[in-house]
User: Fold this.
Amino acid sequence: MNRNYELMFIVRPDMVDEDLNKLISTLESSVTSAGGTTKTEVWGKRRLAYRVGRFNDGIFVLMLIDGVGAVVHELERRLRVTEPVIKFLTVRTDEELKRLDKIKKIRDSKKKASAAPAAAASVTPATAEAGTETPASAPV
Amino acid sequence: MAEETKTPTAHAGSSGGESRPERSGGDRPERSGPRGPRPGGGPGGPREGGRKYFRRKKVCKFCVEKIEAVNYKDVRLLAQFVAESGKITPRRLTGVCMPHQRRLSRAIKQARNIALLPFAGRAQ
Assistant:
């Protein structure tokens, strides 16, 4: 019942590394204590596309979270309260990953088997896939 | 459905007719109904200033390169589908197929929210 989320947040650019790491470890511990796994990537300082608050740059941090919804709810609550965090966005990704997995499996099965038996096997599970792949070869 | 009711009028009908047959190859049989009478009235050229009925076929970039996941994080890919003003370019100009356009549009909106793409104005 675990869902995958991607949480990206922007921290004000004049924050020091150690404070940032402290903040990240606090957030990570709140996830793991509730029984989830997390992975963090710090993208570093980037120019923002528009002014947010008083800043034109920000430090982007991406967290990949595996857990229940309550975990993310708690995380977002914390981020809202934390002063250095100026923006955040949570995206749920487990449905997307499931879909990509399915597509990959179909493509792999098509490559391994020969054309005829594989086409017969893949027509039923994914007519949508056949639909997206035929326009490349569809005549006028 | 709204496009089909507009087919009697001049402009909306032609742009709808041009984009639909090229984009959704699977849907072609059902679209031949409303498309039938229109070629009879002319190649659709005079309305658009001498353009042929089937403009140079644009293919969906995502379908060709088999890019399945459109993420809000790859700004360079998304920026190709965003105009100078920051607006999302319509499908009939970029040639993207509908399901990919939907995912692309959602990704662009997410990127705008997280300040990776601007809402308006050129991206610096």
